[in-house]
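Memo to structure team: turn this sequence into structure tokens by end of day. - J.P.
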Amino acid sequence: MRGFRNLAASALAPRNLFLLALVGVSVYVGIGGLLPTGPRVTEAVEARPVAELTGPSANDRNVTKIVSSLMRREHLSKHALDDEISRRGLDLFLKSLDSMKLYFYQSDIDEFVQKRDQLDDMINAGDVSFAYTIFNRLLKRVDERVALVDELLKQDFDFSSDEILVTDPDKLTYAKTPEESRERWARRLKYDLLVLKAESSAAKKEGAEPAVQDDPKDRLRRRYESFAKRMHQTDSNELLEMFLSAVTNGFDPHSTYMAPASKENFDIVMGLQLEGIGAQLKLTDGHTVIDKLIQGGAADKQGELKVGDRVVSVGQGDEGAMVDVGEMKLNDVVKLIRGRAGSTVKLGVIGAAGGDVKIVKIVRAKIELKDSEARGEIIEEGTKSDGTAFKIGVIDLPSFYMDMSRARDGSENFKSCSRDVRRILDDFNAKGVDAVVLDLRRNGGGSLTEAIHLTGFFIEDGPVLQVKDPDGRVQQYDDTDRGIAWKGPLVVLTSKFSASASEILAGAIQDYKRGLVIGDSATHGKGTVQTMVDLGSQMFRISNPPELGSLKLTIQQFYRPSGDSTQQRGVLADVTLPSLTDHMDVAEGDLDYPVAFDKVPAAPFRSYDTVSGDIVGTLKNLAGQRVEQSAEFKKLSRDIERYLEQKVKKEVPLNEEKFFARRAELDAESEEEKTFEQQANGSGDKQVFKRNYYNNEVLNITLDYLRLLGKDKVARN
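Reply from structure team:
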């Protein structure tokens, strides 16, 4: 089918972490379950006038009909676009808009659900006007809630009472009256103020407190007003993306509609390069703030822009007028800053400590997203029989990236993770590395082609995976490049965030008994393959079709050479190490409407002799003894116990003394937010493999593995 491109797309869309824009790198805004993520409100408070979206755009009808047709004909499940999908879609759309049930009233929901069995008929006809009805009601409720927030923040709060804030959406109901909504928002604001106080205390301890301090109530007022402004700036493309994706997510969690802007950002993430200044932006209490500078990027080389600077205006060229961006949504600010390499952009910025606006002039350049590409490091550890140290080569691979656009155009030098990893392995071979550790802990997937190529570096030949299409046909994908780039001992490091293409590689390595899998008890469990369908090409059979966005469509399920699917089960670790992520609800099975696990017959392949049951048993025993004696792992064990206790309760005390006591032990919501942020943006460490107690144990297991293998360290089958 024209416009289709196969890929094992990234599996993870962490809760409360939304990819908003890119300015030389991903721009993420971390929005916790207790921060303004979606809509909330009260009619007892006078609300400002609402500027409504006027209705579907000219292209919405055609895009909707194409998406409807493709989902019905091509989706893996062969599920009809029927009343069941209709109900799922409405539930998911409402959840995406108001996840904590703070904005809509129960009466709003009662009105909406009267049409819950009609969405399929509407979408088949190309009619998305109901999405506008819901979203415009949301805007009305948001404005009411912002007015309520302004009123409540004028009052004093009692932090000595034993109130709680429920953090589990499933335990919450929509408010039935303005009074009920008012009481819930009072608790929410108390929580917000306690969090700001905790953050301020932590900043003081670290010596990172800015010279200028805003009043916490002013910060909250500005935060919610900014949220309302951003919601009112939602355009028809963004609303169409939210609504259609809610419906396609009713088929499975990974089928989504991408509007043109989102598709552009997706291509940047996959290709790891763009043209811009090389700065990562975020929204903080209504301000656009520099969150990170890309090493070697245009802004980094220019030297004037600093992390923490607030961007207040943007101008084009040497003489272009400065445009105030204080009221703009982040996507629009990004569009102004991003531009053709060699052109000039001017930023009006205010430093983190306040002061006057300074104009920073930067010449845009091609930016390579180095933080997201494969990196290698050789670590000397332990002692061999001859007295020299073992050399452990570590490869950090954040994704299976590939510049799909340049690859399609026939370019010989397109960006590719397999090419980068091959260069690293060649260097390891030249320097006499004893073992390789491939770190996939934050790798959420990427290109299926790249996963096959990279797996082939560690096996001579044979099947890497099998795929089954909607008609039940099973196809085998083999390593076609004979030869092994790395013949020595191999360790694959995984976590619950290792997904999709990561699981293809880890599963094949485990099936072939080619290497050891260490990490969380299981990987994410995404065993489906997506393709990108360009909707403009589907509608217009011309050389340069209009940009209508793309449909990321689940078309296949993949299976290991052994025949087992990784879907919902993941790849089980040979040696499990304790971690907090192992207990987070971030796996495929925790998502809405995942595809079911199943099996296909095993493909014929020859296994290697580098992993055996006896070796794995011994490694588990040795690692278990060290973990049992480790003070750091003991502390982690206590943290895990507290996390699980808080996770079950799903509530936060609003008594100040109890709130800070809980936070001093461990704050479940804070830990989850921090983990999601690290998955999205990386740890920020320049080190490939940071030396901490967890990674030290990985090295210990690797050394044990080397010793158990003895002299027979070369893969043979």
